[in-house]
Amino acid sequence: MDQKRRTFLKVAGISTLAGLGAATGVGRLIGGAESAMAAAEEAQVNASAQNGTGQNAACGDACINRYGMLIDARKFREDPTLGERVVLACHREHNVPNIPIKKDEIKWIWMTHYDNAFPEQANLYRDEVNAQFQLPILCNHCDNPPCVRVCPTQATFRNADGIVMMDYHRCIGCRFCMAGCPYGSRSFNWSDPRPYIDSADMNRDFPTRTRGVVEKCNFCDERIRKGLLPACVEACGDSKAMVFGNLNDPNSEIRQMLKQHHTVQRNPSLGTLPSVFYIV
Amino acid sequence: MYDRGKIIIGLVIFVLLVTIPVWYNRGTTRTAPELVKPTNANSCVLPVEEMRAKHMQLLNTWRDEVVRTSDNSSIVIEGKAYPKSLQLNCMECHTSKVNFCDKCHDYSSVRPYCWDCHIAPVE
Fold first, then answer.
1. Count of CB contacts below 8 A, A vs B?
2. Which own/partner contact pairs does B74-79 have at CB distance under 8 Å and 24+ positions apart?
3. Is position B122 within any domain?
4. Domain boundaries A67-279, CATH class
């Protein structure tokens, strides 16, 4: 009996070892083939991206386009009504509700003082101009967006144009992105926004939002797709107070303007790499 | 079996309660809702049977393509382009939410949340 058990254990042990060894060997062979295929695919994707024909949906490090904006605060000082017109154009275009309760308000683009927009550049002895006038701020559509990193459902993501987008179907309203965004660019719908939208004045081609989702500026993705400029840029007319363009294209107007002027980004030390630049 | 009487009475009451919908609605028949068909078009993006069974999957696919992969190419059928949009395409022909969407959704007690955000046509 003892002898039999001994031989059984030996045989069982050896066959288990043999089985495990064979499994890992085969696994390594299959894995090797797969990784080789993946490398080939990756090379193809890179090649098509360089040709400018590829579509990178996930948009990790290499976005094909990176849309950006240059805001000339001097123009907003020259024309004090411009700011209001810009904000109104955006909020009307996107059915942004006008909620009178301050802590519930929804903002896509708004006017603020220099000290609030650029807290890192705070100065003990403020100049009169910046103390008096306001400049517009909006989502920076960062190259390294913290909101995208913290979103647990990937409701906020970067698209192939480098725009930080919201997918309201997926948003669960956890507000991690609001905690993650260092610019306060995001607003939460505490209640149904519909009652606060003027139904006579609303844009019937664009949806509203619902209770329990976070919303923000979408760089007028729906207009860019049609070949139009963002609503705020359009509201500025020919004043060049706001310039919109592709930062990845060295010949674009915005890149030329960035070359000619000294510009600043909001809170650059945070490493979010904003796509919105300011001439102050 | 202990307490046989109590258990059997309890079971009978339970069965009656559970089957309330069956015997309460016995004899009443409800006809399937009649839909008002669009007058400005003869065909949809898919055949009627497929639309009836799968319009929700189609809308989900469109949503994912347009929102997440920025693929807003139109669907071209017989030379006519249909954008992949509920608000900007479907409702162009089905101009009434009340007489089209709601008819079946109410009948089958389905409450999709499309219209929480998307704007229904003025009626």
1. 40
2. B75/B45, B77/B43, B77/B45, B78/B43
3. no
4. alpha beta
